[in-house]
Automatic annotation (TrEMBL):
InterPro entries membership: Activin_recp (IPR000472), GS_dom (IPR003605), Kinase-like_dom_sf (IPR011009), Prot_kinase_dom (IPR000719), Protein_kinase_ATP_BS (IPR017441), Ser/Thr_kinase_AS (IPR008271), Snake_toxin-like_sf (IPR045860), TGFB_receptor (IPR000333)
Top-level taxon in the UniProt lineage: Eukaryota
Cross-referenced PANTHER family: RECEPTOR PROTEIN SERINE_THREONINE KINASE, TRANSFORMING GROWTH FACTOR-BETA RECEPTOR TYPE I AND II
Protein name in the entry: receptor protein serine/threonine kinase
Subcellular location: Membrane
GO CC, alphabetical: plasma membrane; receptor complex
């Protein structure tokens, strides 16, 4: 009986032992994590099998419909795996609460090991129609495409607006340029050196020019009438081969203290290119009467206008030839291409010297004669004898100045021929170029050397000048200017002083 009564007690102890062991194992497994079935999301790119989730993690079973091109319909694609115990894994497990445009769903579990192997979540099937490849991959590419098209259209519209406004600005000319002052105001705002506008303004002025008509052509290029800031300006457009002349003329104009009433007013210089061609521009004051050569052909002069022309020419040349000393002084400059075509007539009847493409400067500190390399030569008709026979002393700056004075004498002769004399029986010669009666229209070096150096010919002085005190005095000056010996020729300053006296005496007689 004792043995029979002990049997139930042993069985109770055995059951209690197994129950405790089960609880211990369950707790131990909870500490270690959970084993999940994996397929399609196995760690380390392993094939289908199992994965070990971290403590507190979940097993999941997910489904997503994909398009099968062979079958022509959507088919479910299942995947299994482990999710981490963090917030991200928890949120993924709640994905079934969110409606999806595509057929997909997910279910999580963490009760037992491999609990997800037999889980198959439900989903809403897609209609069996051929999908848009962009929509299958993602909705994002479609959004990116739409955004890109919008940006492109916006950029194109902005470009069209900018081009339109630039075109309108070019058509309207300088009226669209905001301005609170005139061209003269800008020149007055410069450093006072007489070298034109500040360089920053020079680099932008070419874009604001409105060219209107061509007013002259020469071997260097063309001269155009243009408008800038509401005022007329002259734009000298150089040929590509004349870059050296453009550079030299710009360099001379930008010399300190270059500005003078009888030197053509310099405004700016610029190079303007459009890709296929390049324009070298020189912007100066505009004088509507044109060159002295053109002016004398259509105009008969009296004593006052003749003296105004001659005195202003002498004043301009004297300013060039004179060196100004100081902290920012002006070097002496020789023109080397003085002729009636390079002298402009201003509205007040005075003249302005232009075209400094061949000019040379004398640097007194170093004794250097600054001659820019240039294949261009001066005008043969106006060349001095020492230039024609190649005896010019290029190491002496005075030699260049005396060659200028020879050319000045010829220009004075051109002007004096157009001065009327004789009162009631007025007389005046037609306009003519120097040596028009002894050399061809376009003489070469040999033609001029033979006439000037060998035959020692000079322009003929009409006899009527002997009976006119003004013309007689001017004829004596021009004869001394074109003397064969450079040392005998008058300086520009001497000619200026003599003409100033003639001008004053003539004014007194008129009064």
């Amino acid at each position: 009986m004792a043995e029979l009564s002990a049997t139930p007690g042993r069985r109770g102890c055995k059951y209690g032992l197994w129950l405790g062991l089960g609880v211990f194992v369950a707790r131990f497994l909870g500490v270690l994590g959970i084993t999940c079935y994996c397929e399609g999301h196995c760690p380390d790119d392993r094939q289908n099998g199992t994965c070990e989730g971290r403590p507190g993690g979940h097993c999941f079973s997910a489904v997503e419909e994909v398009w099968d091109a062979d079958l022509g319909e959507y088919v479910p694609e299942w995947s299994f795996g482990c999710l981490p115990p963090d917030e991200q894994g928890f949120m993924q497990c709640k994905g079934y609460l969110v409606p999806h445009l595509q057929g997909k769903n997910i279910i999580c579990c963490n009760k037992t090991a491999l609990c997800n192997k037999e889980l198959f979540p439900e989903y809403r099937p897609n209609p069996t129609t051929a999908p848009d490849p962009i929509a299958i991959a993602s909705g994002a590419p479609l959004i990116i495409l739409a955004a890109s098209l919008s940006v492109c259209l916006t950029v194109i519209l902005i470009a069209i607006v900018i081009i339109y406004h630039r075109y309108r600005r070019k058509e309207r000319g300088p009226c669209l340029v905001p301005s609170q002052g005139t061209l003269r105001d800008f020149i007055d705002q410069s450093s006072g050196s007489g070298s034109g506008l500040p360089l920053l303004v020079q680099r932008t002025i070419a874009k604001q020019l409105a060219l209107s008509q061509c007013v002259g052509k020469g071997r260097y290029g063309e001269v155009w009438l243009a408008r800038w800031r509401g005022e007329k300006v002259a734009v000298k457009v150089f040929f590509t081969l004349e870059e050296a002349s453009w550079f030299r003329e710009t360099e001379i104009y930008q010399t300190v203290l270059m500005r003078h009433d009888n030197i053509l007013g310099f405004i700016a210089a610029d190079i303007k290119g459009t890709g296929s061609w390049t324009q070298m521009l020189l912007i100066t004051d505009y004088h509507e009467r044109g060159s002295l050569h053109d002016y004398l052909q259509i105009t008969v002069l009296d004593h006052a206008s003749l003296l105004a022309i001659c005195l202003s020419i002498a004043s301009g040349i004297a300013h060039l030839h004179t060196e100004i000393f100081g902290t920012r002084g002006k070097p002496a400059i020789a023109h080397r291409d003085i002729k009636s075509r390079n002298i402009l007539v201003k509205r007040n009847g005075e003249c302005a010297i232009a075209d400094f493409g061949l000019a040379v400067r004398f640097i007194s500190e170093s004794g250097e004669i600054d001659i820019a390399p240039n294949t261009r030569v001066g005008t043969r008709r106006y060349m001095a004898p020492e230039v024609l026979d190649e005896s010019l002393n290029t190491s002496s700056f005075d030699a260049f100045k005396m060659a200028d004075m020879y050319s000045v004498g010829l220009v004075l002769w051109e002007a004096c021929r157009r001065c009327v004399t004789g009162g009631k029986n007025s007389m005046v010669e037609p306009y003519a170029l120097p040596y028009h009666d002894v050399v061809p229209n376009d003489p070469d070096f040999e033609d001029m050397r033979l006439a000037v150096c060998v035959k020692r010919l000079r322009p003929i002085i009409p006899t009527r000048w002997d009976n006119d005190p003004i013309l007689f005095a001017l004829s004596k000056l021009m004869v001394e200017c074109w003397h064969a010996n450079p040392a005998v020729r008058l300086t520009a300053l001497r000619v200026k002083k003599t003409m100033s006296k003639l001008h004053i005496d003539n004014a007194i007689k008129i009064v």
